Amino acid sequence: MSDLQHFIDGFRTFQQQLYRDNERLAAKLAKGQSPKTLVIACSDSRVDPALLTGSSPGDIFTVRNVANLVPPYESDNAYHGVSAALEYAVCYLKVRDIIVLGHSGCGGISGLLSAADGEMVGEFVGRWVDIAAAARERALARVGSDDERELSCVCEQEAILTSLNNLRTFPWIKKRIVAGSLQLHGWYFEIETGQLLGYSAETESYEVLVEEYSS
Ligand SMILES: [Zn+2]
């Protein structure tokens, strides 16, 4: 059996659930989308934001890339995939919330930390994750490099804050935040425990949104 057969069977189940069991939603989706939330997540296969949040088609507009990073606003002729998605979500769909969703054990952040030792990962990955170089420096200053796991965790969480700061450099995002029609959120999913944390600007720390899984 082809590796892809699993996905084709999965699609058949999805098709039945949407078109047979939820005709109203299918008809609504056929007319267009109006999600109110943008999620910026990692490409990592374990952190699909729609699966994690129990979302239905049409609920969230999603950007996924290595290490869930947002580059700063740049006005030049380069191809800006993340910025284009942000523009579409904020200026056209008029989302009300943007969630930057990070996670533990992030390979992209691991690459960012390796770069501190002069090891650039790949042709594109190292350059891309360098967006969060300041997060790496903050994490190193806070916890040092002795405990690798702690350093990764702090760096992953700091990188979310870098992305939130970079979001505020986009003039149309800043304008909507000031007007009170858009809110930014930093979430961190800890894969080992099933815990979900959210950044609190008030306490300047991550707080528990959903506690660790216990049976
Ligand atoms: Zn990741």
Q: How would you portray this structure in words?
A:
With 215 residues, this protein is an alpha/beta fold. 44% of the residues lie in helices and 18% in strands. Strands 2-1-3-4-5-6 form a six-stranded mixed sheet, covered by helices on one side. Helix 7 (133-143) crosses helix 8 (148-167). The protein starts with a helix and ends in a 5-residue tail after the last strand. Zinc ion (ZN) is lined by residues 42, 44, 67, 103, 106-108.
Layout of strands and helices, then pairs:
Elements: H1 5-20, H2 23-31, E1 37-42, H3 49-52, E2 60-65, H4 81-92, E3 97-103, H5 107-115, H6 125-129, H7 133-143, H8 148-167, H9 171-179, E4 183-190, E5 195-200, E6 205-210
Parallel strand pairs: 1-2, 1-3, 3-4
Antiparallel strand pairs: 4-5, 5-6
Helix pairs in contact: 7-8
The protein binds zinc ion (ZN).
Which features characterize this protein?
single chain, 215 residues, alpha/beta, Beta-carbonic Anhydrase, Chain A, 2 domains, six-stranded mixed sheet, 9 helices, 6 strands, binds zinc ion
